[in-house]
Design a protein that fits this description.
Blueprint lengths: L21 E2 L3 E6 L4 E5 L3 E8 L2 E7 L22 E4 L3 E6 L2 E6 L4 E6 L2 E5 L5 E3 L5 E6 L6 E3 L13 E4 L17 E2 L2 E6 L2 E7 L5 E4 L6 E6 L4 E8 L2 H12 L13 E2 L7 H14 L5 E4 L20 H10 L3 E6 L3 E2 L5 H8 L5 E2 L6 E4 L2 E4 L6 H10 L1 H4 L5 E4 L17 E5 L2 E4 H4 L3 H17 L5 E4 L2 E2 L7 E3 L7 H16 L5 E2 L11 H11 L6 E2 L15 H16 L1 H14 L4 E2 L1 H4 L13 E3 L3 E3 L9 E6 L3 E4 L5 E3 L2 E6 L7 E4 L3 E5 L11 E6 L6 E7 L13 E7 L5 E6 L8 E7 L10
Parallel strand pairs: 15-32, 21-22, 21-35, 22-23, 23-28, 28-31, 31-33, 33-34, 45-49
Antiparallel strand pairs: 1-11, 2-3, 3-4, 4-5, 5-20, 6-7, 7-8, 8-9, 9-10, 11-12, 12-19, 13-16, 14-18, 16-17, 17-20, 18-19, 24-27, 25-29, 26-27, 29-30, 36-37, 37-38, 38-43, 39-42, 40-41, 40-43, 44-45, 46-47, 47-48
This protein binds ligand MIG.
Length: 761
């Protein structure tokens, strides 16, 4: 019909119609106040300052004034520090301690050096923009520099050579290398060299892209809109740079111990009797369990903060009984609030103006599980408080953990999300959903976590989220969404989780066994082996898929799965100590080899092995039918955890691993605190110390303990033991903190002490 109107001759976008990339070429003027350098450019404005000696912030806004306010992510960007500024005629120079920033005026370029090393260098005229207000920052980079971080992404560990974009998306399928945009957006990359690691945090919440593919000698980082708002972090190695990044964006708080145990889930356990039955079977088979999940079917018509009366008539009693068995129950809470005039949560939201709206004030409604639903505007403090307080519904029944899903936010329509012209009220100013989209999950996590904290008082909450942005680690554990029961997804979960860890998120996991599609006994065993050594350990699967609880495939499979759930509990004292350290340092629980061996180029592309802390190396089997694999052991001596054989590192070995065996190696000189067998974390667990002999290094370890539950540890109610061993294997213990542990060191096991004279393998 349109053919007969002017539409027939609508403008064709030929070559000339394509948007041009225009560059900013020089600095026009500047002002210096002793801390912040601000000025005008041939187009737009800029600001440059030191957050501290190793953190530099650069803002360039081609379209207006720079906004100096740090985002919700950059909580560590406090008062700018004063530094020395020199105008060397053609260049401006900022100096703080060992760091120098050289800003060439015309054409504009920038170089950051520390201790003589060049950390970051741009080409001339390194910022460009288009008429649609896309902005791009280009920095020099070599093709052979490994790039890590960038949050939750598919593919292997090293992202150099690819394009990584960020737009929080609910992707049920597929998750493959070309599926770049998943649930989380963390625009932070590490450019690693053997003598330094540059961190680049591009703190812009619009859709962003890191193009490490198109150019041979540079990386182009762009945002659909907004300003170039970048932080350059200057660390000696990956660990230091991750430390600086988590100082800037916050660290993973010490979780309650029960969240580190084994969790069982399914979409969904649909009735009280089914939930009870699952818990009973764990008890019957004596398989350790700390938590069971309630997916969307527990609700009344998918209304959050309710329960279904038909299938969960005695909800409270059920929770009570399960909690008495030392099992926590975590329900799901989605953001969509059902449009139902009889539903109090919807009523309150409308009356008090809590929902996300269009500019004209109309509430946005979108289709999700409950049907037409409204979406809380979590950006507003009053909405955060309201939502937080609503959790009283759960906490009054003893619930201490909440699972947030669908918070990309996911909506059942073509764009998969809210209309982009919906607005959010961020501290009094309106931002479009285009700007708020990637932040929505983070603000929901904040509301959930802070609400639980307030309600639970001195008890540490657990919150699990699917969506997030940089800084999400401060509030929630992240699971990697809807993977499938494919070997490829087991394999991919490792680099995904390692990169999440280098992006500041220490507490992460993937659905063990695979969420969608049908698992197999072999895959379930191998996946449980890996899951037992990743920070978050939950088995979860979709409705209609084959059952994948530990007993689903008969006794042999169950025994093997059980063995690895038990092994997780054995390693719990080591894990808990690592979580304590993560809160202090920001370092992830699981690490790529490159993190601990930053100068060993053989580790740079290693995506199929990982370290738990620095002392335990896991080399899982990731393919069906295989019972051998090549394992790279870095320098030093390593002990096979099972056989206690030792190997000299710095080379590859072919290791055998039958279906019941996960290859685990322990670094020489480690004192590994392991626990005695327990059925859940609420039981008393005694300690066994495994001392791995070393001629080269001091033998040492640490063991952190507290009540596992409260915030008492913040005021001295903790115990940090520093362990050391002599050549003869006598262990010395020094304690900091006042916590009186009731667990005993039951046993000291010396490994490799008799091998001293023998030659190594
Ligand atoms: O669109 O709540 O990723 O873990 O079981 C599906 C049902 C919604 C997606 C989550 C999955 C969860 C499922 N949810």
């Amino acid at each position: 019909m349109l053919e007969n109107t002017s539409y027939a001759i609508l403008p064709q976008d030929g070559e000339e119609g394509k948007q041009k990339n225009l560059s900013i070429n020089h600095i026009q003027s500047y002002e210096w106040d002793g801390e912040i350098l601000e000025g005008t450019l041939s187009k737009g404005t800029f600001a440059l300052y030191f957050v501290d000696e190793k953190t530099v912030r650069l803002i360039v806004n081609p379209f207006g004034k720079v906004n100096l306010n740090p985002s919700i992510a950059a909580i560590g960007d406090g008062e700018p520090v004063s530094c020395v500024m020199k105008d060397n005629h053609r260049e401006l120079e900022l100096i703080l301690g060992l760091t120098r920033i050289i800003l060439q005026k015309d054409p504009i370029s920038i170089k950051i050096l520390r201790d003589g090393k060049v950390f970051m260098e741009t080409q001339d005229s390194f910022v460009s923009y288009t008429s649609s207000k896309k902005v791009t920052l280009s920095i020099k980079n070599r093709k052979d520099t490994p790039v890590y971080g960038l949050g939750e992404k598919t593919g292997f560990l090293n992202k150099n050579g690819s394009k990584i974009s960020n737009w929080n998306t609910d992707v049920f399928s597929p998750h493959n290398k070309d599926t770049v945009e998943l649930y989380q957006s963390i625009p932070f990359a590490l450019f690693h060299n053997s003598d330094k690691t540059l961190g680049l945090f591009f703190d812009n919440s619009f859709r962003t892209e890191f193009d490490m593919q198109t150019y041979n000698d540079q990386v182009a980082i762009s945002a659909d809109r907004g300003a170039i708002n970048s932080y350059f972090l200057l660390g000696e190695d990956i660990k230091e740079t991750v430390g600086i990044y988590t100082h800037l964006t916050g660290r993973t708080p010490l979780p309650p111990k029960w969240s580190l145990g084994y969790h069982q889930s399914r979409y969904s356990y649909k009735s009280e009797s089914e939930v009870r039955k699952i818990v009973d079977l764990f008890k019957k088979y004596e398989i350790p369990l700390d938590c069971i999940f309630l997916d969307i079917h527990y609700m009344d018509g998918y209304r959050v903060f309710t329960h279904d009366l038909d299938h969960f008539p005695n909800f409270e009693e059920m929770l009570d009984d399960i909690q008495k068995l030392n099992v926590d129950v975590v329900p799901i809470v989605d953001p969509g609030v059902k449009k139902d005039i009889h539903y109090p949560v919807y009523q309150e939201g409308v009356k008090n103006d809590y929902f996300s709206k269009y500019l004209d004030g109309t509430i946005y409604h979108g289709e999700v599980w409950p049907g037409q639903s409204a979406f809380p505007d979590f950006f507003q403090k009053k909405v955060q408080r309201w939502w937080g307080d609503l959790h009283n519904f759960y906490t009054k029944m003893g619930i201490r953990g909440i699972w947030n899903d669908m918070n990309e936010p996911s909506v059942f329509n073509e764009s998969k999300t809210m209309d982009l012209d919906v607005h959010h009220n961020l501290d009094g100013h309106l931002i479009s959903h285009e700007e708020g989209h990637n932040l929505y999950g983070l603000y929901m996590s904040k509301s959930t976590f802070e609400g639980l904290q307030k309600l639970l008082k001195n008890t540490r909450p657990f919150s699990l989220t699917r969506a997030g942005y940089a800084g999400v680690q401060r509030y929630s554990t992240v699971w990697t969404g809807d993977n499938r029961s494919h070997w490829e997804h087991l394999e991919m979960s490792i680099p995904m989780i390692l990169n999440l860890g280098m992006s500041g998120v220490a507490f992460t996991g993937a659905d063990v066994g695979g969420f969608a599609s049908d698992t197999t006994p072999e895959l379930l065993i191998r996946w449980t082996q890996v899951g037992a050594f990743l920070p978050y350990f939950r088995n979860h699967s979709v409705q209609d898929s084959i059952r994948q609880e530990p007993w689903a495939f008969g006794e042999d499979t169950m025994n093997s799965v059980k063995k690895y759930i038990e092994l997780r509990y054995k390693f719990l004292p080591y894990f808990y100590t690592l979580f304590y350290e993560a809160e202090k340092t920001g370092l992830p629980i699981v690490r790529p080899l490159a993190m601990e061996y930053p100068r060993d180029t053989k580790t740079f592309d290693c995506s199929d092995q990982f370290l738990v802390g620095k002392d335990v190396l896991i080399a899982p089997i990731l393919r069906p039918g295989q019972n051998h694999r090549s394992v790279y052991l870095p320098e030093g001596v390593w002990y096979n955890f099972w056989t206690e054989e030792h190997y000299v590192g710095g080379k590859y070995y072919l290791m055998e691993a039958d279906l019941d065996t996960l290859p685990i190696f322990v670094r020489e000189g480690t004192i590994l605190p392991l626990g005695t067998s327990i059925q859940n974390t609420k039981e008393k667990q005694d300690i066994e110390l495994y001392v791995y002999h070393s001629k080269e290094f001091k033998m040492q370890g640490t063991l952190y303990e507290d009540d596992g539950l409260s915030y008492g540890y913040k005021s001295d109610d903790f115990s940090l033991l520093t362990l050391s061993a002599s050549d003869k294997g006598d262990v010395k213990v020094e304690q900091v903190g006042n916590y009186k542990s009731n667990s005993l060191v039951k046993d000291v096991r010396l490994v490799g002490f008799d091998l001293e004279q023998e030659g190594s393998k």
